[in-house]
Amino acid sequence: NYYITVFPTILSIKIYSPHPRQNDLNPAVLNPWREKSPGLGRVKRDWIIPPIRVLENSKQVPEYLVQIKSDKVFTGAVTYSLEGPGVNQEPKDFFEIDEKTGWIMSKMPLDREKYKSFTLKAFALSPSGERLENPTTIEIYVLDQNDNRPSFIQPEFTGAVPEFSIPGTSVLTVSAVDADDPTTDNALLSYSITNQESIPPFSINKTMFGINNETGVIYTRDVGLDRDVVKSFRLTLQVADMSGFGLTSTSLAIIHITDINNHNPKFSPQTYKMLAMENKVGEDVGRVNATDKDEKNSENWRIIYSITGGDPKRNFAIRTDRVTNQGIISIVKPLDYESQAEYHLTVSAKNEVPLSIKAPYEQTSTATVIIRVLNENEAPQFYRNPIEVSVAESTNPEEAVKSHGTRTAYVLYTTYAAGISATASLEITLWETNDFPPVLVPMIGTVCSDREPERLGLLLTAVDEDLSPHADPFSFEMADADMAANWTIIPLNETHAMLQPRMDLTWGEFSIPITVSDSGEPARSSNALVNVTVCPCDRAGQCMSFAAAAIFRSNVGLSFIALIIIMASAALLLLLLLLAVAVRSCSGHRMKKSGGLLVGDSEDDVRDNVFNYDEQGGGEEDEDAFNIDLLRTPGDMAPPPETFSHPVSGFPKHKQPLRKDAPYNLPSPRYPRKRPTNPTDIEDFINDGLEVADNDPNAPPYDTALIYDYEGDGSLAGSLSSIASMGSEEDQDYDYLNDWGPRFKKLANMYSSD
């Protein structure tokens, strides 16, 4: 059962429900205010009080708002209390409750703009302070009154609109605020324009602007916004609440009329006369003037001048004075009075931005500028400067390369008060000629006979001091038909070729004549003799000795132990040989020079010995220093053999190679042939011969036996090199030394049997 008790401005509702509905699946969730009594099994009663609405700015104080009442008053005394913001919490002292009657009252007028609502808690207590009921929530809402005027967000608004804008063009938006409740008419605003003033005053009398009363957008209403007539407008704005019937406030809006490019610049006057000195560059000739009615110093007012006719060689230029907006004509290329004494220029003017489509059609304004060129006494001039000449690099001295004239051919026959000259630059370009033949490299090399066919050969190239196209590609050819039967040259690219044998050749040295040619016009070539050594090589590409080559190239298999035995035997033989040489050297004695004769260190030792002359070896062709024939008797002289053994590898040598540090096929120098008259001159004689041999271009590039004198055949004396090899001391007979004269007396005393 439900019952409602109504009091003046009071509504108290109590709900009682002894039997919960069976379809309530979870009463505690669906109805959280219900609580089952553990003893009676029914729902406990609660207060439900609807929100209380109080008008702001009420002058009735105190004002009774609502009364709460508990049914516990029928069983005993009840005391009421009130808590929450507005009572005992900030803001305090706005509300209070009569603890005996339960009346809730306001203690002062309320302001909705400060506090829109209050939420309070009401309690029913016993005299001892015990809660008799659950506290109830009381919501108090403050009702709005139109007690605030609307206000614009700024005291003055500024906007701009281009001239000749069509009606309906949006200019700017104004805005206002109202502190009253925005959900009521108290804050429903309406905008309007109450006055319009033009600047200059009274330039336009019709209404040119309107405003949307809801949005505050100001727009154009009529045509005729010409900036030449009116510059700006001052509008008085009004805003009112209650849809325009409530409180009001005002503001101002300043609207400027902006310029568009609706005027073409015009020349005034349209004809100008100026003077210019010939041969002057960078000087200003004069100014032209054009005017524009658009806003000054704007892009619609600034003028760009251009020369559109009368200057095909572009001798003149024109620029704009940013202050006066005039055009300044200047000379950018020298003028020549003799070529053209007067110019008629056509100058046009336009703005920096294109003309607006709203502007009336007008042709571009032009002006005529007449410039007279003043003559001056000038120097003769070359037709061209610089003068370019192309000369071959091999041009002969004193050969004419270029002849050139001047502009004034009669200058040689004209007399001036002061002499004037002209200068010009002469640029001479040397073009390449084929004046150098290519040089073949290398001149000496090795061909490894134990390599694969594709790796067999000597890589050839050439060096040419000329530049392209007189250098590579090179062509390589065999210069000897006989050699071409055994050797061939295979081109690899434009600069390299491979020299390869056509067949298996015997090991040895070969001198191969090769011709190399360049690609010049005409082509040049050179011949070279390439010394090639054919031999088996080690991994580094170096020739191996004959014994090593025989071992490593033998088809007979050698075990490792046999190889060790062979090497040990060779080492033992070498050791015995060195020991024998050392014993023989220790038994001898050195000779020294004394009074032009050879005197032994010890007169007691008169045995044959090998005399050491500090010889350090003869290089590739010298195995033993004491085998070199320094002096040879006529009986020992014989022409050198055509073929002899290679001292290192043991391979037969076929031809004597030429020296690389000397020109090809030059004559040999003259060797000294005069026999020394005094034995003390032997040293000078040998040194002279050595110097000539060093400078001999046909001498081989290694040490070899040199013939210092040839006295004919049939000499009874033997070679000096055979003195130490004729037998032991007891077998020698030196008595014949006494017959050789006083020069050999000392030697005869040392070795004769007397």
From TrEMBL:
Could you tell me where this protein is found in the cell?
A: Cell junction, Adherens junction; Cell membrane
Q: Name one GO molecular function term.
A: cadherin binding
Source domain of life is: Eukaryota
InterPro entries from the xrefs? Answer: Cadherin, Cadherin-like_dom, Cadherin-like_sf, Cadherin_CS, Cadherin_Y-type_LIR, Catenin-bd_sf
The record's Pfam families line, in alphabetical order, gives: CADH_Y-type_LIR, Cadherin
Q: Does the keyword Transcription regulation apply?
A: no
Its main localization is: other
Can you tell me where the transmembrane regions are? 560-583
Q: Where is the Cadherin domain?
A: 71-152, 153-267, 282-382, 460-552
Q: Where is this region: Disordered?
A: 649-679
State the protein's purpose: Cadherins are calcium-dependent cell adhesion proteins.
Provide the protein name: Cadherin 15
Which organism is the protein's source? Astyanax mexicanus (Blind cave fish)
